[in-house]
Give the backbone structure.
Amino acid sequence: MGRVFARTGFTGGTSNDLDGISRNTLANGNMGIVKYSGNIYVFNYNTASGQAENSPFVIVPDDATGNEAWELVGVKAYMTDSVFLPIDDAIDGTVQAPAAAATITSTNGKVRVRKFDSATDEDVIYAWRVPKDIVAALGIKFEVEMIITEGTAPSSEGAAFFLEGYSIGSGDALNGTHGTAVKSSKTGMSDAQYDRVVTTQSAKVTVTDLAGGELAMLHLYRDVSDADDDYGQDLGVSGVWLTFTRLIGA
């Protein structure tokens, strides 16, 4: 890795300005970082630049004798992001639809939910517009947000939800093949009626052909036969949290 030089100014002739670094200490590809007026600027040192001084875009060393110059470069960075998909955005699934969306009220609080049954697997589908800057190779993870809606609260019991999906681009058929379903569950629940509960974040969900800018068909279902799902009452699902990685500045 090349050397990195940190400075507080671009030009001006002081020892702490970028142009004050002697070319004799520099090599092609070195990085310069300038913090100026609360902003951060990143430069690449190019010995074949040939560009004239144009601060802050091009900074030529004070002792330059050839084509060398510092060139301002764009910055790319990975960022973890999350998005909430409310239950009102979900469409009835292909197995058994949960109850219709309804408003749950507890004094000052109100939230929209769909109740998922404890005896029959029930499912919904989200048509999610995949961000264009998603890092598809890292996939997505999910959590399910719920409200304990029933008077019989769980007593150290649990619930299990699964998510699977596929992604379609322009010109692709609406139908597709799901990737492997992945579980997000919550065990040991002892929450009172109207308490908010969020399942543990899942492992990476394999969404077939996931790509930025496409439409992901995400299939969410409660699996009442799973070992983690032993709460014998309906669960009011208010939505799903998706977590993924973006490449910003690309």
Observations:
- The chain is about 0% helix and 45% strand.
- The mean pLDDT is 95.
